[in-house]
């Protein structure tokens, strides 16, 4: 049986899980529709899992184990704690399902809040050779989060350095800050600024995010070229504590709006 294009079970445990779901479904003579019916999910979910575009969730892994007497739940737990380089699929999966996002931005506007011009300027400044394709992928990620019937609760804390770091010139920065102010008008979005006067704090070593997915939380840390998903509860708790401490010293929402407006005026 040919493996789905782009999947490498020797490289990624997630790829192995995807291939095994497909193989065992076919061994049992089940169509994708039939398996979806047995699991109580959409046919598209089965297809995306089997093609590696979505990670199998713990819940559906447990249902497969009950149906087939397999060990997918154990494999999923191992995959979630491994670092095989396949972090992006997991991140987008969590973003699409998260009911709450908490973000700390140390230097740049987080991707989900970027304007197309800001994103293009960032991509063009690096070694990216597929700027337009990656820009479209970023737009698709944003649409999945912001255009849901019930959008998630979003709380963002920006370092003052995010506003002081020019990206793409004055026009791009003015438009980006204006976009942030517009987003902050929504009742489900909170944007606050941590000012330079706070001095040293525990967010100086980099940006991170906390996402509430179902009844659990995961964390994500940024790094050059790749990020890292953190799923172990004790490790996720450390990020939650860090976020709470940053929240304690960040400016209130009203003051932060004044800071954003003032920053926008500096880009003339």
TrEMBL record:
SUPFAM superfamilies: lambda repressor-like DNA-binding domains (SSF47413). Residues 21-75 form the HTH cro/C1-type domain. Gene3D superfamilies: lambda repressor-like DNA-binding domains. One of its GO terms (molecular function) is DNA binding. SMART domains: HTH_XRE (SM00530). This is Helix-turn-helix transcriptional regulator.
